[in-house]
């Protein structure tokens, strides 16, 4: 029988109990809960930045990535005094805006962090546009080719974007925005881009929503970016054997066919020290001229 242990630590002035620090969460990578919390602290300036103003959904794995898991939207009880919450549609979400809150969630075995597309208190003025390049196959060697082609099309439209691994099998393309267009207006732009890609590269892309009807085509998902929906937050760990982390890439890395799982909890810190946050440095875009162009067609 495993021996349960616990200890008390102080994080940014807040005291909390850490339970079972030696529990293996990612067995293949030999990452224990204590090691995970250390990596979360390393990621905290980046992960918190992209979650702090969003409604947070976490995925909990109490017995590690190979055990049972569950999504959690409502803030679990008891709620420590340092945790802030925000309500939407009867759900009391955790506001991930501090290091103590992140460590508390990590101790609860919240291994994945998915942030809402809409910001708290700003329901229909997105500050980014996200396109999800989602493979139909678990192993898809063409995923970076697809991301590159989508990026090339955006560049031809004068749109600067940042590719990001989902940390699982796909790639997301993020365009920082002036808070001008609505989600519906962005969907119109996304439909235009997706239609073009699926017509130009019919053996690679589809905009078919039903997975069973896609075959081996890569889904260009412009619909997931919408009020009330979530996407994997930049720098969230993923419950995959590789302990992968959702990581912004350079377009050169995409062209060189970087693996979606190339960056993980054991090497993401070195990457951030070397390159910093590529997404934070991305220029803010104005897509209204593109929208007006599409409306005239």
TrEMBL record:
Name of the protein this chain belongs to: DNA polymerase
Gene3D superfamilies linked: DNA primase, PRIM domain
InterPro entries tied to this protein: LigD_pol_dom, NHEJ_LigD
Residues annotated as domain DNA ligase D polymerase: 32-278
Top-level lineage group: Bacteria
Organism annotation: Paenibacillus darwinianus
Any Pfam family matching the protein: LigD_Prim-Pol
């Amino acid at each position: 029988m495993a021996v349960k242990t616990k200890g008390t630590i102080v994080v940014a002035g807040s005291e909390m109990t850490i339970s079972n620090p030696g529990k293996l969460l990612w067995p293949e990578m030999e990452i224990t809960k204590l090691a995970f919390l250390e990596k979360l602290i390393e990621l905290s300036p980046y992960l918190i930045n992209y979650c702090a103003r969003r409604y947070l959904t976490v995925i909990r794995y109490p017995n590690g990535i190979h055990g049972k898991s569950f999504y959690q939207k409502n803030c679990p009880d008891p709620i420590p005094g340092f945790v802030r919450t925000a309500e939407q549609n009867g759900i009391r979400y955790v506001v991930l805006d501090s290091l103590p809150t992140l460590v508390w969630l990590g101790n609860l075995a919240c291994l994945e962090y998915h942030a809402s597309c809409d910001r708290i208190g700003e329901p229909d003025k997105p500050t980014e546009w996200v396109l999800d390049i989602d493979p139909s196959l678990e192993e898809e060697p063409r995923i970076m080719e697809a991301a590159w082609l989508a990026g090339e099309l955006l560049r031809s439209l004068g749109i600067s974007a940042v590719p990001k691994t989902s940390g699982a099998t796909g790639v997301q393309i993020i365009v920082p925005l002036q808070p001008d267009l609505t989600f519906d207006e962005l969907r119109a732009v996304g439909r235009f881009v997706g239609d073009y890609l699926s017509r130009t590269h019919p053996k690679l892309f589809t905009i078919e929503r039903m997975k069973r009807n896609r075959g081996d085509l890569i889904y260009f998902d412009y619909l997931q970016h919408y009020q009330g929906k979530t996407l994997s937050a930049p720098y969230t760990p993923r419950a995959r054997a590789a302990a992968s982390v959702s990581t912004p890439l350079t377009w050169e890395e995409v062209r060189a066919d970087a693996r979606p799982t190339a960056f993980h909890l054991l090497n993401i810190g070195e990457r951030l020290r070397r390159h910093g946050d590529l997404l934070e440095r991305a220029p803010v875009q104005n897509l209204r001229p593109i929208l007006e162009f599409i409306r005239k067609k």
